[in-house]
Amino acid sequence: MKLLKVVPDDTNIDFLKWRNLAFGVSLLLMIASIGLVATKGLNFGVDFIGGQMIRATFTQTAAAPVAELRETVGSLGFGDPTIQRFGAENQVSIRMKLPAGADKNPEIANAMAEKITNKLKADHPDLRIDGVDSVSGKVSQELFSKGVLALLAAMAGVSIYIWFRFEWQFGVGAIWSLMHDVTLTFGLFALTGWEFDLNIIAALLTIIGYSLNDTVVVYDRIRENLMKFRKMEMASLLNLSVNETLSRTVMTSVSISLPLIILVLFGPDVIFGFSAAMAFGIVVGTYSSIYQAAPILIWLKVGSHSFVPTDDASSKAERIGENFGAKP
Amino acid sequence: MLDFPRWRVWMLNTLIIFGVLFAIPSLLPVHMRDQLAQFVPAPAINLGLDLAGGSHILLEADTSQLGETRLEALEDSVRTAMRRAEPQITISDVSRADGKLSFTVTDVSKVDAARTALIPLTSNTLGSRDWNIAVTDGNRFIVTPEGTGNENALDQAMDTAKDVIDRRINALGTLEPTIIRQGDNRIVVQVPGLDDPAALKALIGKTAKLEFKLVDEMADPDQTAKGKARVGSQVLPYPNNPSGLPNIAVRRLGGISGDKLVKADPTFDSQTNEPAVTIQFDSEGGQRFARMTQQNVNKLFAIILDGQVISAPQIREPIFGGVSQISGSFTTESANALSISLRSGALPVDLKIVEERSVGPDLGADSIRRGVLAAVIGTTAILVLMFLVYGRFGMYANFALVINIAMILGVMALVNATLTLPGIAGFVLTIGAAVDANVLINERIREELKRGRRIVQAIEVGYKEASRAIFDANSTNVIAAVLLFIFGSGPIRGFAVVLMIGIVTSVFTAVTITRMWVSRWVKRTRPTELTI
């Protein structure tokens, strides 16, 4: 049987030739992302800023009359709503700030939701209320700080692991490429104005996990080659490692992108932002393993000397790997 | 390396079978699962509210008020103890401020006796002190909270509150609520399938503390209107006051509380035909109620619910038998809600809703249907691709992947985990990791074959070399998952749980199980050629 080859045998692409350019572009994109987040801001959901969100579907109308809704809801005297289509054209989310005093007295928040939904249902008999989220300022602050803390802890934790298992330069490379991926994803959300809620934090964590997986595979090969080819120049060695793992990289990213692309296209509208973030992150994560995590090792002066000692981390690593693989 | 002793083959196969068996109930439609559950235990995965639809309410206790309640109770018992002391100890200038109770023992010679009387009130059953007693100026007592008294009280109050909420929701009928305490002062209530939580909120948002107090008929209406009461009285809001004032003055002491009820039912007032609630006290409460009404015929008494007066009727004759009726602008629904709340007891603390989420069942169902469809298409695409690229070894990987998915579901069902939307992200990540493990192994075998190794050796080296990267990649994911579980909140934890389970099963199926199959194939057929 003739098997499919996703990548031809023995590729020898000079990936690292463009490392300065790629690094420059990435740096610019990261700065742009930070700039976008700083100026335009993220479209935070009620999870993170508190408030009330009503989700609704127009079952008989093709497109939700956003402008009309904005006026109707705005005229009820609870302040200006943030109204957005999400997923399909006929689905909207209406976000309101909680009225003053709602923290003390939840009745006020209830009354607001009731008044808005009643008005909308009266105006549009085909309207289906899909959900109401109401988050107080205190809880949203907790969710936000806990989410940020979880992200930072995960990034720091895995980088420390890489540092112990490889060398410190690899740890720096890993955390840099994670920061790269997370920053660009933040930039994507600032640019598109997609709602940023707790689910997006989960997506970011998935991106971190995947990107790291990719980085570890490339690093593992670099370490192996560093011990095998002691005289090889670092740039060629990195190129060799990337090329050797190329068919695996392509195969894995294609495999993981498949379900994600299908989720973006056909998946539930509620998780559109979530699936899109993950699909984006897979691409960025794969790129960053090759063009961020690997070249950093050159700048941080990693060479075969990094692995010279007899009982160094790598031979320990090999033993652990062996035990783990052969006699679990 | 490719050697598999018989016992290990048996062990691995048993693990696979168990994993897959536990997954079955979760995959069955609900009515079939219920039938199955009659014969064998059939644990199934819970769907989170974001997928199944339902209401999530996070309640937070007002802890400051709890300290106040404790202090109030202490004041009561101190007054009683001093009155009952032999000889009686007179106290004056009783005040509660800044969480402290202070009072003056008028007769300086009785200070020691007062102190002795206080001891049993200020220590708890474990013998340690809940309150600290200090005496200043010779006869002024200051009692301050000490040690873990307040925390213990909060802990007990939260446990009671949880039970009360449980009873109240159960009274609504067939709902299957999950009620759990979270942190020190919070309670999460989750009710699947309930998309309009208005009725639920009306039930659990009310403290339902019922009190009967005498109206202060000597109060100056002008002062009452300003919210000022004379000594021994207090001003309470009274929205339906027939006099037109928004509040009313009542006597602090001499009332009785409605926490000793045996019955509370919605009814209709026989005279006005308006909705009302009848209550029945237990025998002790009934006697006290009889005594209070007997001593105060022709006076007004206020019926107070959660610090607000709902009506203030006149006592026309003593009420014996402990049955009373509460009326005052109820609707049928609110009369029903109040009687449920009264039956299930008052909440020991005020709870307020700090977070509320509801997902309509249509949206939830839509999310599941489309999510499952996307997952099936996506997984099928992966399976086809793996087969096309790696042939026989791809098929091994595919079987391993299917078993992996089943085992994740099985373990989740076994530990009674909940699958949420972020959990699906965790699922995607672990499936990715499982596919990646097999890709790494197969690519490595390919490489080793190209370098001219013999088949058996290439397979051995392939598994060995790839295992190192697989181990590192999965270890980092475990670290991330553990940190997420520690630092994350609700949905992020759901992600972390799936990730932790998934990593273990992925490595088990993608590495160990495929190696077992590969080794069996190699031993049986002694292949001379391998297309990979």
Write structural notes for this entry.
The complex is a heterodimer of chains A (328) and B (532). Chain A has 328 residues and is α+β, with helices and mostly antiparallel strands. Chain A folds into two domains: 15-42 and 140-323, Multidrug efflux transporter AcrB transmembrane domain (Multidrug efflux transporter AcrB transmembrane fold), CATH 1.20.1640; 51-135, Alpha-Beta Plaits (2-Layer Sandwich). Chain A has helices at residues 19-39, 46-49, 66-74, 106-123, 137-165, 168-192, 198-228, 234-244, 246-266, 272-299, 313-326; strands at residues 43-44, 51-58, 82-85, 91-96, 127-135, 195-196. In chain A, helix 8 (234-244) runs antiparallel to helix 10 (272-299). The two termini of chain A are 33 Å apart. With 532 residues, chain B is α+β, with helices and mostly antiparallel strands. Chain B has three domains: 6-53 and 360-525, Multidrug efflux transporter AcrB transmembrane fold, CATH 1.20.1640.10; 63-150, Gyrase A, domain 2; 154-357, Gyrase A, domain 2 (2-Layer Sandwich), CATH 3.30.1360. Chain B is built from 14 helices and 19 strands. Chain B has helices at 6-27, 30-37, 49-52, 63-84, 111-122, 149-171, 198-204, 221-225, 283-295, 332-343, 361-414, 421-450, 455-487, 490-525; strands at 46-47, 54-61, 91-97, 100-105, 131-136, 140-145, 178-182, 186-192, 210-214, 233-237, 247-251, 256-257, 261-268, 275-281, 301-305, 308-311, 323-327, 351-359, 418-419. In chain B, helix 1 (6-27) packs antiparallel against helix 11 and helix 4 (63-84) crosses helix 5 (111-122). The longest helix of chain B is centred in the last third of the chain and has 54 residues, at 361-414. The radius of gyration of chain B is 34 Å and the shape is elongated. Classes of the chains: A alpha+beta (328), B alpha+beta (532). The interface between A and B is large, with 87 and 87 residues.
